[in-house]
Design goal:
Helix content is 72%, strand content 0%. The protein contains five helices and no strands. The longest helix is centred in the last third of the chain and has 23 residues, at 54-76. With 88 residues, it is mainly alpha-helical.
């Protein structure tokens, strides 16, 4: 079972950069598409409606989450050469 776990573990550098970008974009767009128009108005004018702004708030947090993920992947790599490849 340990061997299967080792084989199943994918390293960040093994991922295709274009595919990672495409999947992140699809995920972000799905959330963006779910935002109701009223959420924008409530947010801009700081209105307290019964619906609130749940989807908009999730969408506004995405850049920080994605930045944290990218930084974590860079710092997770102990080898300096591999780390530079992750940055690239």
């Amino acid at each position: 079972s340990n061997e299967l776990i080792r084989e199943a573990r994918i390293q960040f550098l093994q991922l295709d950069a274009v595919e990672v970008c495409a999947q992140l974009t699809l995920r972000d767009f799905a959330l963006f598409k779910s935002i109701q128009t009223s959420e924008y108005i409530d947010h801009i004018f700081k209105l307290k409606s019964s619906c609130g702004t749940p989807q908009l708030e999730k969408f506004l947090k995405l850049p920080n989450q994605e930045m944290y993920w990218a930084i974590t992947e860079i710092l997770r790599e102990p080898n300096l050469m591999q780390r530079s490849k992750v940055i690239k």
